Amino acid sequence: MTLEWEQVIVHSADPEALGQWWADALGWVVVHSSDDEFEIRPAPDRLPGLDFVRLAESKKAKSRLHLDFRPDDQEAEVARLLAHGARHVDIGQGDQSWVVLADPEGNEFCVLAQRRR
């Protein structure tokens, strides 16, 4: 049996707006758009993607699943994402090497420190 990781589903009040925010933040491309769904990928034929699907109820608690990103320059990337509309969030992480941010709908994600060489 073989499984291929297709995508991560992100429930969203406004799939197009949130999906476009992430496409711009990641430099990814839109591969599908409808009233209730907006899918992006690193390239049209590259998986996995992020698929934003309309859900009327709002986010109520800390996300049980989140994305981690490891940039070349953590400080510059955090500044870029904040300028793009992300915000700092405290999920009880304390003083850590990673930075916890949230997208415009409150979905948490982490920007990790550079790898030690």
Key terms for this structure?
single chain, 117 residues, alpha/beta, four-stranded mixed beta sheet, 2 helices, 8 strands, 30% strand, globular
Low-confidence stretches: none
Strand content: 25-35%
Order of helices and strands: EHEEEEHEEE
User: Major sheet: size, sense and barrel closure?
Assistant: 4 strands, mixed
Shape: globular
Number of helices: 2
Helix-and-strand structural type? alpha/beta
Q: What can you see in these coordinates?
A:
The chain has helices at 15-26, 74-83, and strands at residues 7-12, 29-33, 37-41, 49-54, 67-69, 87-88, 99-102, 108-111. A four-stranded mixed β-sheet has the order 1-4-3-2, with helices on one face. The protein has a four-stranded mixed β-sheet with strand order 5-8-7-6, with helices on one face. It has 117 residues and is an alpha/beta fold. A hairpin with a 3-residue loop joins β2 and β3. The protein starts with 6 loop residues before the first strand and ends in a 6-residue tail after the last strand. 19% of the residues lie in helices and 30% in strands. The mean pLDDT is 93. It has two helices and eight strands. It is globular.
